[in-house]
Amino acid sequence: MSSLPKAPNRRILIVDDEADVLDFLKIYLESFGWQVTLASSSSEAFVQLETAAYFLVLTDIAMPEMDGYEFISKLKDANVQSQVVLMTGFGYNPKHTLIKIYKTIKCPCLFKPFNRVKLAETVQQMYDEYHKDISQDPQTPPSS
Ligand SMILES: [Mg+2]
Prior knowledge:
Layout: E1 11-15, H1 19-30, E2 35-39, H2 42-51, E3 56-60, H3 68-77, E4 83-88, H4 97-105, E5 109-111, H5 116-131
The structure holds magnesium ion (MG).
């Protein structure tokens, strides 16, 4: 896939194989004015990422088609500009894939069931981080 350049936006792409998680996150995050798109698999997510710039990809780890580790690796390979936040229902386990990702890519992780305050704060932080180098001049292409 090809990656879109960074552009100011309020779009969040949420990837999870569980419909009730998607439903909750859409309702909750839209209440803050974020524009939420849902994907039930990594392949759906890749289609969405071709169509618009997202400041944030919020992805589950345990999914049947492609796990979060592979998904994030593909995002990085494709030079997708979005911030990435992981979410998982698993608790902390130093041998878990999640911890490997955390140490390698250093993206934040949210644990289910969600701490709503932490969730809202993390999304705002990712918005600020994504936009901090494009706020001066939205036309400046990313350096390569
Ligand atoms: Mg899952």
